[in-house]
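User: Reviewer 2 asked us to show a designed sequence for the structure in our supplementary figure. I'm pasting the structure tokens here. Could you produce the per-position amino acids so we can include them in the response letter?
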């Protein structure tokens, strides 16, 4: 069977790698990267161009299309594929609003009693400004629409919150995504990522994971797409996980179905655990990147029944199982990321890690240049290792990360610190 993977990050490489373990699966990546190309073929397209994705899926006789990133989901790529009778993994546009609109998601949580930070919605910058001036407590300002992870300002004081309103609403730094904002209470606790896959009715919980969003060690520096992740984080005890399932996942999926927008695909809930209580920071309607790399390396056996069952709206008799007790992923980024960086740097050492046991190197911003692999993006590689413990996974991942070189290579040395120093 032929699977078309839409997207070109390490998340998509990890999904392609896991799917490819079924001997009958052939992979086509669109646009893919050098790692996905090594598993099959790649075709260069704009993943948010729904007509083009459908055309490609037809031309390739794809039996299944897996959409990785949020932008094509929100653009309705899954709707277009399903309208054409093609099985597609991911939510349709209506269900993707959980991620595509912060206002929709906050109001949805309020309707269904899902625990989250208190909030207010504004379409007028002057009203938002007055609210901040009166609030006198730490606030978070969020652009309503997608802003590539940059539309959230966690303000230390009123001045930063006001600057956020200026940037998002007045200067329209994120275009129409900033026409409206959510202003919410700032929560203090430990962040976790919780994923489930749903077929619209039932769901399969995946393991909890923890991302590292800041660029530098000690959670310093600017926010990034994620510099590393590990699974499972110890803050998610069995008791906390049960609360997440009962208070967040169940009511969310039930609520979506009750509102006539059943959720099919991967639901990744960003949570703040505040004194043992989970509160939702945001919904994402896709796998997290780099969280996905840790989940795919831990998963036991074929992922196809999960992905295909979700795409078709029926899991059938699915029994999820975990192979590796722990996984840890270190992102190698281009020097300067998340700011500006140079591309085209030759990557060496990839061959020297291929023989390391329990290590997988997933490609993100890489390209093939003749017989060499070169950098082509901010996040370049996701070096991921499994182990019996987080410590063991971390040692393996860093050994591999140190064997790979390219000019300007930037990485965090402390991925998993919350688990490793506990
Ligand atoms: P979001 O895109 O909504 O997840 O926000 C991006 C990041 O901002 C999150 O991963 C958190 O680190 C932080 N954040 C978002 N909302 C809050 C909040 N209410 N309190 C504290 N931090 C937050
Ligand atoms: N790692 C966070 C995200 O994928 O949004």
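Assistant: Here is a per-position design you can include in the supplement:
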């Amino acid at each position: 069977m032929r699977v078309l993977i839409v997207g070109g990050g390490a998340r998509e490489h990890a999904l392609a790698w896991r799917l490819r373990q079924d001997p009958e699966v052939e992979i086509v990546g669109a646009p893919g990267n050098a790692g996905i190309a090594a598993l099959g073929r790649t075709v260069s397209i704009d993943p948010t161009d729904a007509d083009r994705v459908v055309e490609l899926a037809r031309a390739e006789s794809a039996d299944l299309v897996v959409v990785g990133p949020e932008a094509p989901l929100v653009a309705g790529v899954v709707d277009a594929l399903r309208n054409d009778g093609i099985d597609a993994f991911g939510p349709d546009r209506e269900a993707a609003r959980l991620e595509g609109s912060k206002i929709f998601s906050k109001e949805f949580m309020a309707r269904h009693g899902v625990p989250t930070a208190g909030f207010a919605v504004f379409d007028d910058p002057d009203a938002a400004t007055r609210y901040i001036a009166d609030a006198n407590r730490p606030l978070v300002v969020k652009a309503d629409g997608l802003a590539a992870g940059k539309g959230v300002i966690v303000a230390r004081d009123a001045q930063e919150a006001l600057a956020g309103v200026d940037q998002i609403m007045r200067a329209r730094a994120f275009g129409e995504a900033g026409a409206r904002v959510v202003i919410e209470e700032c929560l203090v606790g430990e962040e976790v990522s919780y994923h489930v896959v749903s077929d619209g009715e039932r769901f399969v919980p995946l393991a909890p994971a923890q991302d590292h969003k800041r660029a530098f060690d000690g959670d310093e520096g600017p926010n990034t797409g994620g510099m590393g992740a590990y699974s499972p984080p110890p803050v998610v005890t069995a008791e906390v996980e049960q609360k997440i399932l009962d208070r967040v996942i169940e009511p969310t999926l039930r609520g979506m179905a009750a509102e006539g927008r059943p959720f099919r695909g991967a639901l990744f809930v960003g949570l703040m655990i505040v004194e043992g209580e989970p509160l939702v920071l945001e919904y994402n309607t896709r796998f997290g990147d780099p969280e996905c790399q840790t989940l795919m390396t831990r998963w036991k056996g074929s992922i196809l029944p999960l992905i295909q069952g979700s795409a078709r709206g029926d899991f059938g008799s699915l029994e999820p199982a975990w192979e590796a007790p722990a996984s840890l992923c270190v992102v190698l980024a281009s020097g300067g990321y998340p700011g500006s960086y140079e591309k085209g740097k030759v990557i060496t050492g990839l061959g020297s890690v291929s023989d390391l046991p329990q290590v997988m190197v997933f490609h993100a911003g890489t390209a093939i240049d003749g017989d060499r692999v070169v950098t082509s993006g901010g996040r370049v590689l996701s070096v991921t290792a499994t182990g019996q413990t987080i410590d063991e996974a971390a040692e393996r991942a860093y050994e591999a990360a140190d064997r790979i070189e390219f000019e300007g290579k930037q990485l965090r040395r402390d991925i998993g610190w919350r688990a490793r120093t506990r």
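For the response letter, you might also mention the following. DSSP finds 15 helices and 22 strands in the chain. The chain has four domains: 2-90, 124-179, 190-312, 326-403.
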